[in-house]
Design a protein that fits this description.
Length: 341
């Protein structure tokens, strides 16, 4: 299949620039993948589509304020650094703008010297390895100096950092939020648990590769970015027991989906543990664990729209997206949601 097979025309005004005041007041498009039937609901109606015994898988990663603005120590030229992956305690793989100002040996100063960085090397895709120096606790300094790394299509300033976090975010390490989870409130999760739905928490640290365009003409030629995931014993047992009982495993977001599918064998048994995944899910993929998906509306020609097409079929997804555009749904990270069952 070609990348252009996943193109759709999206009016720019449907790209949500700000989160809704109430997380769960977003809309929910429900797609029955067996019949193709589409219905329009509110996100608070999600429990109506869940059954006792189902398992909801959520990604409890936490976004770090990974965007830093500094100056070169020698010239005071402005420079922007985006933290991507922690390689060692104080060494990070980063994206630097402008890259030509960040040759090995370059020193960068942040926050009047509260934090300094030295460029060590240039690695894959032009990223830079930077060693940071500071006094105190790095995470506290980052929280003070850093900005949330919002996607490039969001141009508005985020007033509250917590609105780009899920309410269940725990483990720091993501450069982007698992946005399908942004719709949940503590109250809604409690309601879901009280009706007998199990919650399994997994972790996948979302990288910026999720926003990178697919440059290959044929999707099979695209190389997926690598992301770290972790599944605890308890979560693996809950997911496996759900499958054994004949109940449904419904993932919240493509990141939860990629995590459980990466950790499962061909029989659908999920193994506890951690590692790096480069799993690329597109039409033709056979899901071993997933039975349903809560997700946002994704960018045209993205790996994420390919993933949902693998679950529900490309034609049905494009038809659902066409319906969402017609009904003026809000798209992308701060947008509305979709439930595929």
């Amino acid at each position: 299949m070609d990348v252009k097979d996943f193109y759709f025309d999206l009016p720019k005004e449907l790209i949500a620039q700000d989160p809704l005041e109430d997380r769960s007041s977003s809309r929910l498009l429900v797609l029955d993948r067996k019949t193709g039937r589409i219905s329009h609901q509110g996100f608070r109606d999600l429990p109506r589509y869940l059954r006792p015994g189902d398992c909801l898988v959520i990604n409890d990663t936490k976004v770090i304020p990974a965007r830093l603005f500094g100056v070169k120590k020698d010239t005071l030229a402005k420079i922007e650094v985006l933290l991507l992956k922690r390689r060692e305690k104080d060494v990070w793989e980063t994206l630097v703008k402008p890259g030509k100002k960040a040759k090995p040996g370059t020193e960068i100063v942040f926050g009047d010297g509260l934090l300094t960085g030295t460029v060590l090397d240039t690695v894959d895709e032009g990223n830079r390895l930077i060693r940071f120096s500071y006094e105190g606790i790095f995470e506290e300094i980052l929280d003070k100096l850093g900005h949330m790394p919002l996607p490039p299509y969001i141009t508005h300033q985020l007033k509250d950092k917590n609105r780009y976090q899920t309410v269940y975010a725990v483990h720091e390490g993501s450069a982007a939020a698992p946005t399908a989870g942004l719709h949940f409130t503590h109250e809604l999760l409690e309601q879901i648990e009280e009706m007998g739905v199990k919650i399994a928490k997994v972790t996948l640290h979302v990288g910026l590769g999720t926003f990178r365009p697919v440059k290959a003409e044929h999707i099979a030629d695209h190389h997926m970015h690598s992301e770290f995931y972790q599944i605890g014993e308890e979560a693996a047992q809950v997911i496996n027991a759900t499958k054994a009982d004949g109940s449904r495993v419904i993932c919240v977001g493509t990141t939860s989906c990629r995590t459980v599918e990466s950790a499962a064998d061909k029989q659908g048994a999920v193994k506890a543990g951690s590692g790096w995944t480069e799993i690329f899910i597109y039409p033709g993929y056979r899901f071993n664990v997933l039975d349903g998906l809560v997700t946002n509306f994704h960018l045209p020609e993205s790996t994420l729209v390919m993933l949902v097409s693998a679950l529900a079929g490309r034609e049905q997804i494009l038809k659902a997206y066409e319906e969402a555009i017609k009904e003026r749904y809000r798209f992308f990270s701060f947008g509305d949601a979709m439930l595929i069952l």
